[in-house]
Amino acid sequence: MESCIFCKIIAGDIPSEKVYEDDRFFAFRDINPKAPSHFLVIPKEHLPGVAKLSDNPELLGQLMILSVRLAHEEGLADSGYRLVINQGEDGGQSVAHLHVHVLGGRALAWPPG
Ligand code: AMP
What we know:
It is a single chain. The protein is 25% helix and 22% strand. It is of the alpha+beta class. The chain has a 5-stranded antiparallel beta sheet, with helices on one face. It is globular. It binds adenosine monophosphate (AMP). Adenosine monophosphate binds at residues 5, 14, 16, 28, 30-32, 40, 86, 92-95.
């Protein structure tokens, strides 16, 4: 999608610090990290958010499995980490391209603000 910032990152039109890429998924470090480790895992297909995924459990499953794998490759398996998907305005979603936040490297507060 032309106007989508994450689609531009996938295309290489906006620079990013890449963590992982395959034919379906891309992961890169968050530009405004909220934890010592904070990266985003996204499908290359433009989907506006998790709310639109009811007809695609396979993609959501692969996205979550990859996020766990990358968290472990980041060295977070023992200390723990958090996977977050924000949806819509009240959920705090600011970019309308489905993404999983992977956060770790410090004790994260609960509940989130
Ligand atoms: P959300 O608020 O859940 O939609 O998350 C969007 C995330 O994208 C935020 O944590 C932003 O810091 C991050 N972000 C926005 N633009 C960029 C960018 N150019 N490179 C890396 N991360 C970005």
